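Human:
If only I could read backbone structure tokens as easily as an amino acid sequence. I am handing you a single protein, as its sequence and its fold in token form. I hope you can help me see how the letters and the tokens relate. Thank you; the sequence and its tokens follow:
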Amino acid sequence: MSIIIYRDAAANAIFVEDANGVQFLNSLQAYLINPLDVVVSIKDLARDIDIFTGIPFAEFIDDSAIAYGATAPLTVNALNAVFTGSGSDNAPVITSTLTVNTTEGVTINYEMVATGGVGYEWTNLPAGLVTVDGNVRKIVGSIAADGVYTPTMKAVNYFGSDTETLTITVSNPPYSNTKSVNFNNNDYMNASALTSNPMYRAANGAGASDAWTICGWFKGGTSSDSNQTIISYGGTDKDNEGRVWVYWDGNSSKEQIVLKFGSEDDWLRFTTPDNSLVDNTWVHFIITYDGGTTGSNGGSINDYYSRFEIWLDGVSQTLTKENSNDGWDSSIKNEQFRIGEVVFGGEHMRNNDKVDEVAIWSSDQTANVAAIYNGGTTHDLSALTTAPDNWWRMGDGDTFPTITDQISTLDFTMFNMTVGDIVNDTP
């Protein structure tokens, strides 16, 4: 078998390949035992050993498969010309950049370069990065999660080693909205109903500490059902426990967003004007609650009404305001939290209703409605001056059946749905 030898400039070492594999070496010397020999030997000067002894001169070829010489003496001279300057009696020095800046999922292609390096090692490589077969100096792959990663790289030769830390900074990819979630029949999504949820409250509204804001994009389908749940949080006892219930009335003469706050017997209800939404047309909604009291005294009903406001496409709506038994003056329990189904069950979105970019705040964001709506252009809500407590992209960056909370860890799980319900339909 031929022996391939050439100088690898990037590795600053001599590439040697024979039947036993590949080596990167330095401090080599070719020689003849006898000037009339037709065989060549090569010594590793650093280790003072022969790596090849008595090899026919024609077996030595370069990376283009060209023999180094027509005779043994010519081959020795040509090889030593390659070997000259390829090594020294110094430890290696890593000279490649020590920082990489990238974004989630983008391919990394990095090569360690060292002066005088012979061997190369990597430790603590983050998940997603691997070394390249045949060139351990190079790492390739991508990293899925943003953060700072610090693998260690090492170059060695017979005189020592150099160890450096490669700092890889992975950022979130630029914001892009390409997905939403489509709902049919009995589809819904469920998340843990925590007391940390902004819509939870322990008793009648105590003020700013109980305030919340909900926003999202909604596209109504063709169903005329009057109670198609967009989002719902609270108690599951329909008649006796309170809840936050935002739903779509798809009746052709109505086509409204409705907020019902309280139980089935005691409630406040707020309805946008007739035909304030249009079938198969995206609309942005924001609903705010200032955290104040919401019931028990009929003489204060207008105060209770004033706690809530609804905006569609950035415009505050003239609401129809109604109540039963002077509103709701008790807790909103942490029993169920759902998109697409009311917490006591049923009342689903139907016939291709779609939802996108849902977020909630634990504060009244009335003052920031314009910034949240952003002129009707979806945007990175985490970059707002007051970011939401929870934000679900509704498909972008998600893996079925999980809809990931981009701010915290309150993920939704899709039920009665398929991966096909994450669709390419966005505002």
User: Anything to note?
Assistant: The mean pLDDT is 93. The chain has three domains: 3-83, 93-171, 180-423.
